[in-house]
Each structure stands twice: as structure tokens, then as C-alpha cells.
Design a protein that fits this description.
The chain has 448 residues and is α+β, with helices and mostly antiparallel strands. 51% of the residues lie in helices and 10% in strands. α15 packs across α18. The structure holds protoporphyrin IX containing FE. It holds the Pfam family p450.
Length: 448
Amino acid sequence: MIPPRPQTTEGRGSVLRFARAFRRDLLSALPERLYRAWMAEFRSPLVHSFFCNDPALVRLILKDRPQDFPKSNRLRTGLAPLLGASVFVTNGPEWAAQRRIIDPAFDGGRLHDTLPAIFGAADAMVARLKPGPQDIEPEASHAAADVIFRAMFSMPIEHETAERVFAAFRAHQDAQPVVNWAALLPWPRWLPHLHSRRTRRTAGEIRSLIAGLVKGRMDAIRVGGAPDDLATRIMTTPDPQTGRRFSEAEMVDQVAIFFLAGHETSASALAWALWLLAAHPEWQKAVAAEAASLTPDMAGVKALRTTRAVFREALRLYPPVPMMVRQAARSETLRGRRAPPGAQLVLSPWHLHRHVRLWDRPDEFDPARWHRPETQNSARDAFIPFSAGQRVCPGAGLAMVEGVVMLARIAQAFHLRPGPRPPTPVARLTVRGRDGITIHLAPRNSPA
Ligand code: HEM
């Protein structure tokens, strides 16, 4: 069974038709040829962009010369009401200083400190899940937000403040269709500058709730009673070059992006991975069997080889962040074509991960590929669910552990069956099911 992918067209069509389709859904609007092209140029009066699938181009932009391909200021302006000057939108020395403070908190060596948060949230999700058919996306979102609150502020999602922040984020996403990938590409150019009053209000609510959390934590740090979690680590770490720490206001920007980047993405990955398990009973059985021996420590998580391969395969087929955009700071020659300063360079995990010249049977769900030596080249050249290079996702390690533990715990507790119709992937803020992602749950200790 081939997991669902969007219907695309080969035709060129009119610019207007493309623009309309693009605003509806990016994945189906883009032409089929992007799954086999190394590069594609799109030109209109509004946008000049290059789709970069050639691994050499991806390497150039993300790893070799990232300073020449910054994020655009338009992105920063578009996300400013919610994210201020967070690490997600800044560039250059401002960005580098932020990462020098943030990265140590997420260091591999500190990952085991977040295990209680991850296991706690996984067990809470299993306890919350009800048997029967359901859209699993809201549950996955709830669980991912729970992980972030526990890891950042040592509080479960049931805590009153956490619940309020989570509810405010949901309201913001309803009010802010602008925060989707289609709008972050400059199409049309003016769109991200238009913030509705509702968008500004919901963003303001989130930020004032976060400001309360940050202030409370700052006070606790001052009197020496703060728990050792991500918030405390980030707030007490000085920039090793300048000795500067984040101010309370700067910390609000960072916490906002951790919640947004950390919960939307993990929720998308978990929901698709659960659907894939539901649709592939043989893999589900293997994951459930492996889960029986899971111990709540790093060695236990590392031992789940099959579950990790399943989660990786889900990230390959349904990368939560389908596309990333950079801007040429100066004139560049890309595969022999001139890209003027300001050209938009699109790096698409979605297309790279399903590229017919880079993967064997790219549309098939085959977790076993991750244990075959011939996958090594594809994995190195064409697997970037967390991006790559200096701007690689700082939460990648945490997200991998979270995905594996959640899958294991859920597959151990429930039999999963797919809903009546396969979900249709669409690019919202992350890759979601157009009408949700329906699966059927039955407790394993009773007949399925
Ligand atoms: C499956 C889960 C996740 C996926 C697929 C994912 C993916 C990504 C990707 C592709 C980027 C690069 C975006 C770009 O350059 O335009 C990114 C950046 C980022 N992610 Fe994640 N992420 C995940 C989970 C997390 C978590 C759990 C956190 C934090 C707790 C997090 C925090 C961030 C931050 C702060 C950035 C901005 C980094 C920078 O620009 O320097 N992410 N993520």
C-alpha cells in the first residue's frame, strides 16, 4: 500500500491559476516534475524563486555558505507579532549569539535530563486516549505541547498556565492563516505584513502569558529555587563570547518559538507515524513487541531500533516542515543560471525525501531501508527533516527521542487501524491531514 501523497499537475497553467492553487495548498500546487528535477526556476512579476533539489545546492546553501543565504526580513516581519526577534527569524551576529546561549541546553549530553518530561507526557497521552475512531491530530498536538511544557518549565499541560498558553496558541493559529508556508513564500509580496487585529491580539495574549512564566522563573532563579529544566538552563547560560545573558524580554521571544517550533512539528510527525503504523500491521506488531522491553533511560530508548526506523521513515514521507526558504544576499550562479540578489531559494524536504533520483521506491513506506547500506547515500544527501548546517533544528535530538517513546508507548497500549479514508497531506504551518488523520484505537489487552 502506497501512503497518500497529494495530487499534483504537470501543466504550467496561468500564473493566476497557480497563485490560487498555491494559496489553497502548496504541496498539490507544485508540479510533479519537482520530484525528479535538480533545480527549477519560477519567475513572475511577484516572485523569482529557485527550487533547489540538487544535493550540492542544498549543501552550498545550508552548510558551505549559509551566511550568503540568510532568512528574509519578510519572514521576520511576518512572524514578528508572535515571535519578535527569536532565533528562528534572526540572521548574522544576532542569530549566532542566540544560538551560543541556546545550544548548550539542548546538547546531546543533556538529553537524558528531558527523559522524565518525555516519558511523563507519553504515559499521560496513553491514559488520555479513548478507544474508537478518532482524528489523532489534536491528541498528538496535546501530547507534543505537554512535552514542551514539561521540558521547558517542569509543568504538565494540565497546569492552568500551560493550558492557557496552549489554548491561546490554537486561537492564534485559527486567526493567523498567514503563518503557513504558502504565505511565508513571498506570494504575494505584501501578504505577511498584513496582521489582522485578531492576530495581533492572540499573539499578544500568548506573549503576556509567556512573560508571566519567564518572570516567575527569573524570580525563582534569583532566590535559588528554580528547577533544572530547559528554561533555567537557557536563562542562566551566558554567551561564552560576551558573557551576556538573555533579558526577560528576549527570553519571551525564544520561549514563543520553542513552543511553536517544538509542538507543531512533533505533533505532525507523531500523527503521521501513528497513521503509518495503523496502515502497516506488520510494522505495528514489531514496534509493539519492541516496546515491551522499553526502560525509561537513554539505553532503553536507543535499543528501539525498529521504532526509530519507523519514525525516521515517517519523517521522510511526511516531513513536518515541508519547505524552507532562504534569500540570495548577492548575485549567485546556481547550476549555470543567474539568481539575482533577493532571489528566493526553496529547500524542500518534501521533494528531496521523495526524489526519484535520490531514493529507491521513494513513495513506499519501508522502515527496513534505514538498515540497508545503500540508504546511506540517500540519508546523507537527501534527508533533512531537521534542516542541516549551522541552522539545524536545536530540538532534533529531543524530537527523535520523543517520537520514538510516544510511538512505543502507544503501540504497546493500543491496536491501531486506519480510518475509512486515507488522509490527504496538505502544507499548513506543518504537514497536516486536510480533513484530519483518522485512526481507530482498540486496547491491546482486549480483542481488537
Ligand atoms: C519532529 C520535530 C521537529 C522537526 C521536524 C523540526 C524541524 C525543524 C526545521 C526543518 C528547522 C529549520 C527551519 C528553517 O531553517 O527554516 C527547525 C528549526 C528550529 N527548531 Fe525544530 N523541529 C522539530 C522539533 C523541535 C523542537 C522539539 C524544538 C524545541 C524544543 C525545536 C526548535 C527549533 C528552533 C528554535 C529552530 C530555529 C533554529 C534556527 O533558526 O537557528 N524544534 N526545526
